[in-house]
């Protein structure tokens, strides 16, 4: 007669079945490493963006009319927000690995 007792949780999988591969949620970078990499990318992004913006603002933007200057400064001043938002979204993505919960 079969027993109704559940098998222990640490038991091996039944014979003949391959071991389970980690799912997509269980693979990937740890949140700590992801945030470190994202922080480095953000610092580099801000420095490069600021230097590029200063170079454009001193050279080409000063020769434009007042309306175009306003538009150029608006785009150059706020344009870094889009790539930074993408990096930040990647940094805070929820990690479902059991050892990081």
UniProtKB/TrEMBL annotation:
Keywords: Membrane, Transmembrane, Transmembrane helix. InterPro entries: DUF2842 (IPR021265). Residues 1-28 are annotated as: Disordered. The chain crosses the membrane at residues 36-58, 70-92. Residues 1-21 have a biased composition (Pro residues). Pfam families: DUF2842. This is DUF2842 domain-containing protein. The lineage of its organism: Bacteria, Pseudomonadati, Pseudomonadota, Alphaproteobacteria, Hyphomicrobiales.
């Amino acid at each position: 007669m079969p027993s109704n007792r559940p098998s222990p949780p640490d038991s091996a999988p039944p014979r003949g079945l391959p071991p389970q591969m980690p799912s997509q949620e269980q693979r990937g970078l740890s949140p700590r490493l992801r945030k470190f990499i994202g922080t480095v990318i953000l610092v580099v992004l801000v420095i490069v963006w600021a230097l590029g913006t200063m170079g454009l603002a001193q050279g080409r933007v000063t020769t434009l009319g007042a309306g175009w200057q306003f538009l150029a400064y608006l785009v150059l001043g706020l344009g870094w927000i889009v790539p930074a938002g993408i990096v930040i979204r990647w940094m805070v993505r929820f990690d479902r690995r059991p050892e990081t919960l």
